[in-house]
Amino acid sequence: MTKKQSAVTLINKRFDRFEKHFDGKMNETKEELRAEFKHLPTKEQYYAREDKTMGELKKIREELETTNDLYEKTNIRVNKIDQHLGIDTSVVF
Fold first, then answer.
1. pLDDT of amino acid 43
2. 36, 48: one domain
């Protein structure tokens, strides 16, 4: 056996040990990940929940817009009444 062949054989042996060591580690890691992922929702469940959340958010934004509009109209009305009566209701008693 030449020096070149013995070096190749040595490299192959080291690689085999390396591969065996990390194959075991990779399998352990895969199992750990599977155990963690089983608690996550499926893609369909996730999107269904997101659709519901976005629908609620849209509804809240619409309600806020309506409420702000009503508040502004009411505030204008109260200010006109205050001016007519000559009082200031914005001051806390």
1. 92
2. no
Tokens 């199992």 belong to 31
Alpha-carbon distance 46 to 37, whole Å? 13
Q: Please report which residue ranges of 1-93 form alpha helices under DSSP H.
A: 3-37, 43-85
Same domain, 55 and 31: no
Return d(Cα 91, Cα 77) in angstroms, integer. Answer: 17
Does residue 77 share a domain with residue 32? no
Instruction: Please list, in sequence order, all residues whose beta carbon lies within 8 angstroms of the beta carbon of residue 88, skipping any fewer than 6 positions away.
Output: 82
pLDDT along the chain (93 residues), means of 10: 69 81 80 88 94 97 95 92 86 63
How many Å apart are CA 74 and CA 70, to the nearest integer?
Answer: 6
* Residue matched to tokens 């619409």: 62
Which residue shows structure tokens 């009082």? Answer: 87
